[in-house]
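Figure 3 (text version): structure tokens given as input.
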């Protein structure tokens, strides 16, 4: 197996990405809704953090049934977010900070208000073939948001497929005219100087719904190769595929460079570890640390040398990682532990807005507070089957997507510095303590750990290129080695609120980073405190 060399690095292999959920990042015009100018005003902050690229969740024109993941015009910006001029300015100003803008490409489906669907409904033959229709539902395929995936359309007197809400009809990827329209749209955005695309549920585009084949359909990779040749190949772009169905075995099909498909994928196997297997995400289960070690390590080692992957704890669909797998009694220690464990791995790290300052879940107590369509549907369906309210709220508060979507907490003022008026969704009351300003003032804060981790990645190629080996330790000790050009680093985390004894036989040379501010002169006979985590370079 040939070793990948740092000389051949592509920009996105040494980069750290930051995801922005525009609606909740920064309001600039006092309407309680985040916007593009708000993002521009916060570029210096992102530059201080040290990130290289922003994945921008959708900002296109949208009826907002699924907060922008239902697009009715790919060429227009949602008015409440700003204008195309603002976006051009964002791309240009970000560039002055060395930050690239990565757009969210949502092409598995459109909004039912997209002119293509409206034309299809009217009987326009060309556009009918842009969607997936059936006289009768061929099966009882379920939508990811609950309920049937086949909805009857009165005007057409037949059923159409929607794997998400009924207002998000699935596009028919078998239609070459439809694909040509997508390539054209992608070229339009590439022409604006963006850094690339995050491709929403892209593993679904090869689906064969009649056969209930969704992810990984037979033509999936043909379409991705066509996309590369028709839209991507001339520019040095990053493409990150959101692929819920990907396994370490199928990942190289998307990411092996010679296949000319995508740069990397998001895998979700670690995100499923706190749900009961075979059930939905709402069926809660406690995380097992040994399982987490196993899954993450498998992704570190199973990919061929030339395939690449992403690293993440959170995004706009997931609960806050600190509330999920951190510990409220040790927010700083456990938050730093999670950050160090992930950022010392091989792959491109993604930070979700607010993760770097320790934002947490938002407690929902009434149905009125549920904003997200997935949680709303879940709530209604559960109510119908007579499940106790407390149980429903427990699931929603643990796993609901609203947790990640509360406004960014900039300071301790009434609306958290996000807006001067009452925001579209309440700011988490803990913004009085947890906010950017407080983080920046305190040199021991989580922010500075993230900042340091990003700097370390820039400085030490071992983090980017080193091989990975999970160490066989105590169950709750997550320890691994990275090795590169005769140098070995050891990463060790006590993933537990219990003091844990562990002894390594190796000798440390220097301490790279730690969450208890310790310099480790020996790693024999350690009594590791709750969540104690360190990275040391070993003596050769
Ligand atoms: O999410 C894909 C997806 O499968 C989600 O339904 C995911 O399973 C769920 O959110 C986990 O709770 C993408 C986007 O990231 C999401 O925001 C969109 O709602 C969805 O696609 C449809 O575009
Ligand atoms: Ca605004």
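Below: residues designed for each position.
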């Amino acid at each position: 197996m040939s070793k990948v060399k740092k000389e051949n690095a592509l920009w996105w292999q040494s980069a750290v990405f930051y995801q922005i959920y525009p609606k909740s990042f920064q309001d600039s015009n006092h309407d309680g809704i985040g916007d593009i100018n708000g993002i521009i005003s916060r570029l210096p902050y992102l530059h201080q953090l040290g990130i290289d690229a922003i994945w921008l969740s959708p900002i296109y024109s949208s009826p907002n049934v699924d907060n922008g993941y239902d697009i009715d015009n790919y060429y227009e910006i949602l008015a409440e977010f700003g204008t195309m001029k603002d976006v051009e300015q964002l791309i240009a100003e970000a560039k002055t900070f060395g930050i690239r803008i990565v757009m969210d490409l949502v092409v598995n489906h459109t909004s039912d208000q997209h002119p293509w669907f409206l034309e299809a409904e009217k009987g326009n033959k060309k556009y009918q073939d842009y969607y997936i229709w059936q006289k009768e539902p061929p099966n009882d395929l379920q939508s990811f948001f609950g309920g049937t995936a086949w909805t009857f359309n009165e005007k057409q007197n037949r059923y159409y497929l929607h794997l998400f809400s009924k207002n998000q009809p699935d596009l028919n990827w078998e239609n070459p005219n439809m694909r040509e329209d997508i390539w054209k749209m992608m070229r339009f955005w590439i022409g604006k100087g963006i850094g690339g695309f995050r491709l929403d549920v892209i593993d679904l585009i090869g689906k064969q719904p009649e056969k209930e084949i969704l992810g990984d359909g037979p033509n999936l990779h043909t379409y991705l190769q066509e996309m590369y040749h028709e839209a991507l190949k001339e520019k040095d772009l990053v493409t990150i595929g959101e692929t819920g169905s990907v396994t370490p075995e199928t990942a190289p099909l998307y990411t092996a460079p010679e296949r000319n498909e995508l740069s990397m994928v998001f895998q979700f196997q670690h995100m499923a570890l706190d749900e009961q297997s075979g059930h939905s995400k709402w069926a809660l289960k406690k995380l097992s640390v040994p399982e987490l070690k196993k899954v993450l390590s498998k992704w570190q080692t199973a990919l061929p040398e030339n395939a690449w992957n992403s690293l993440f704890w959170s995004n706009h669909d997931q609960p806050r990682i600190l509330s999920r797998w951190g510990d409220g009694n040790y927010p700083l220690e456990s938050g730093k532990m999670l950050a160090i464990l992930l950022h010392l791995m091989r792959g491109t790290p993604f930070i979700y807005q607010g993760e770097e300052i320790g934002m947490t879940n938002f407690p929902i107590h009434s149905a009125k507070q549920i904003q997200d369509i997935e949680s709303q549907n879940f709530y209604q369906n559960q109510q119908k089957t007579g499940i106790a309210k407390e149980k429903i709220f427990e699931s929603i508060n643990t796993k609901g997507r609203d947790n990640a979507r509360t406004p960014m907490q900039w300071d301790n003022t009434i609306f958290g510095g996000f807006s001067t008026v009452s925001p579209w969704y309440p700011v988490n009351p803990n913004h009085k303590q947890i906010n950017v300003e407080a983080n920046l003032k305190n040199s021991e804060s989580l922010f500075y750990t993230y900042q340091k981790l990003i700097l370390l990645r820039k400085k030490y190629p071992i983090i980017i290129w080193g091989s990975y080996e999970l160490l066989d330790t105590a169950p709750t000790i997550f320890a691994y080695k990275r090795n590169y050009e005769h140098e070995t680093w050891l990463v060790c985390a006590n993933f537990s609120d219990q003091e844990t004894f562990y002894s390594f036989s190796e000798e440390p040379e220097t301490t790279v980073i730690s969450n208890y501010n310790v310099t480790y002169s020996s790693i024999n006979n350690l009594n590791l405190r709750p969540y104690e985590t360190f990275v040391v370079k070993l003596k050769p």
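The radius of gyration is 23 Å.
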